[in-house]
Design goal:
Elements: H1 2-8, H2 13-18, E1 43-47, H3 61-70, H4 73-79, H5 81-94, H6 96-115, H7 119-124, E2 134-139, E3 143-146, E4 157-164, E5 169-172, E6 177-180, E7 186-189, E8 196-198, E9 204-211, H8 214-219
Antiparallel strand pairs: 1-2, 2-9, 3-8, 4-7, 4-9, 5-6, 5-8
Length: 235
């Protein structure tokens, strides 16, 4: 349930707290002024099994595995495995081409890890039970209007909101839409095309934003998928 997802985030309290930065060149995702100052749990972190493929420094899978394990991230990914399978199943219906492409990326990442005898990376990939290769976790955070720079117009990002808070709106400025953003809501949208944002929540609130990274696809030689089409829906 969405309550269980919220409570699972407490296991990553340390990396969430460490993510907070003063305004500057760090970007709005971790800008301290955008987080609820009274909240005990707050921060914003990114997780991906393709961390190296995204360009995050020299590859050392043993350090990556150790970092995941010591900071509660590996346990969280494992706890979320059933939910991630459900989320992936939803994408099969909405955008089968994207789902197939995401699966191919993860298969190739696993094959690369086995070829390089990368035991630590091989231990992380089996519990990454989502076809999305990245997730951003934002806790008690106000999200300014923006488009997502990492996305592609043919991709559907998935946004999941959890917590306990009064009525809150998800605003899509491009379409002049205001959507009720109750706890447990899931929104699928091309975040790189539609400008969107979420205001201040008076209560505990977290957003899990699932998305693809183009450089991860490129690193394993998997082309980008075609856009979704009404004909993809098998009635």
């Amino acid at each position: 349930s969405q309550r269980q997802i919220w409570y699972s985030l407490s296991g990553m309290a340390v990396p969430l707290k460490d993510s907070l930065k003063h305004s500057g060149n760090h970007g709005w995702q971790t800008d301290m002024v955008l987080f609820c100052q009274m909240a005990d749990l707050k921060g914003s972190i990114d997780l991906s099994p393709g961390w190296y493929q995204q360009g995050h420094g020299v590859r050392d899978a043993s350090l990556l595995s150790l970092y995941f394990e010591q900071n509660g991230m590996q346990q969280w990914v494992d706890q979320m495995s059933k939910f991630h399978a459900l989320l992936s199943g939803t994408l099969v219906v909405m955008h089968p081409h994207m789902c197939a492409s995401g699966q191919e990326v993860l298969i190739q990442l696993s094959a690369d890890a086995q070829q390089q005898q990368d035991i630590d990376m091989s231990s992380i990939l089996p519990i990454w039970n989502s076809v999305y290769n990245s997730v951003s976790i934002m806790v008690n955070h106000t999200t300014p209007y923006h488009t997502d720079i990492n996305g592609q117009q043919q991709w559907l990002d998935m946004l999941i909101t959890v917590g306990n808070y009064p009525p809150l709106d998800f605003v899509v400025t491009t379409l002049n839409l205001q959507l009720r953003y109750n706890p447990g809501t899931i929104i699928a949208m091309p975040g790189s095309v539609l400008e969107h944002g979420v205001g201040y929540a008076d209560g505990n609130h977290a957003c899990l934003a699932y998305y693809m990274q183009q450089n991860v696809h490129e690193s394993v030689g998997i082309p980008l998928c075609n856009p979704p089409h009404i004909s993809d829906l098998q009635l």
